[in-house]
Amino acid sequence: MKLDTLCVHGTAFSETSGAVSVPIYQSVTFKHPALGQSTGYDYSRMQNPTRQALEETIATLECGTAGFAYSSGMAAIANILELFSPGDHIIASTDLYGGIIRYFRTISEKNGLTFTYLNTADTDSLLSAITPQTRALFIETPTNPMMDITDIHEVSNIAKKYKLLLIVDNTFLSPYFQQPLNHGADIVVHSASKYLAGHNDTLAGLVVLKDPALAEKLRFVYKTIGGCLAPLDSWLVLRGIKTLALRMIRQADNAIKIANFLSTHKRVKKIYYAGLKSHPGYEIMKRQTSGFGGMISFEVDSSTTASNVLSRIQIIAFAESLGGVESLMTYPSVQTHGDIPENERNARGINDRLLRLSVGIEDVEDLLVDLDRALL
Ligand SMILES: Cc1ncc(COP(=O)(O)O)c(C=O)c1O
Fold first, then answer.
1. Cβ(231)–Cβ(50) under 8 Å?
2. Are residues 197 and 181 both part of a single domain?
3. CATH number of the domain encompassing residue 281
4. The dihedral of CA 212, 190, 105, 143: what is its sign?
5. Which ligand 1 atom lies nearest to the CA of residue 203?
6. Distance of CA 266 from the midpoint of ligand 1 (Å)
7. Please, is 176 exposed, middle or buried when counting C-beta atoms within 10 Å of its C-beta (0-12, 13-18, 19+)?
8. Known catalytic residue: 169?
9. CA nearest neighbour of 177 among 229, 251, 115
10. pLDDT digits (tens, 9 = 90+) for 108-160
11. Structure pTM?
12. Is residue 265 domain-shared with residue 196, that is, in the same domain?
């Protein structure tokens, strides 16, 4: 089956009524037929039929063998980090969602993990950062918010050679445009609050793995910590996924038109969108993805212009988050990356002139008028 069809039909879930939509099993616990017997469902922290339908759907879309659904993207990442032990070393992209860096620097370091941050596209510096304690590589591609691109296949060869787990945050492209497990990654993680749920109405996280033994280790963490996704929210993400194909195509289509408009605007000094041929990651994106996505970052001529744009946009909302049907504009230096020290932020280009746009499914002409008016 093609990906568009899999998004609509998801898992082969069936139940006696013939319901087309997976029912919401709003039950904490499940009756046992007799001592030592189970229907396969015992307690909702371990298994819930609605959540299982979502987990099977995302595992299918990401070409993995097991999926796990959590109450947020951060909960998913926190569970993954429990696969490691004190003393383990992880190499991560310098440019990552700020909340993930905050997690690594506060909670994971307190628990004895160590981190090296670098541009994971630069394989020489990646190789020189590997130590006998290194256990994993954690990458985003495209990164949030600078849209750096890493060649997943190339990095996965390094990971395999040194027996490291390659973890890819696939939030920005979703499995519709990029399937990291097919390029050699071991674990894929999503903030499903973004493209997968797709409507700016549900907070969720998803993880997919290929190796059954590793999946069992994560299942133990999952049932022990909790943090799993509630049945109603699982259903909302499943419903979102049904239209994933349509939304991704429309958002990417709108995004390239907006990127072209911004790249010639007099107030825009830099543009970061991997769908532009001028982007250094363009060729890699063409090889490893089937679309360039709907995320654009751009730098305007002054912080005053940035602040004017944020107060003048009318259709696009000035709000954190991304990937939903509504276009959102974010100010990374204050919002998503506000916890990163200013000098580090500036060195990465996350300055007070940088704006990040999550392109929605509105009519692109309306979005262009909104941006043109705001950039005056
Ligand atoms: C790339 C990326 N990964 C993970 C997260 C965390 O996800 P959540 O907000 O669902 O906890 C975010 C949130 O913005 C993100 O942008």
1. yes
2. yes
3. 3.90.1150.10
4. positive
5. 10
6. 32
7. buried
8. yes
9. 251
10. 999 999 999 999 999 999 999 999 999 999 999 999 999 999 999 999 999 99
11. 0.97
12. no
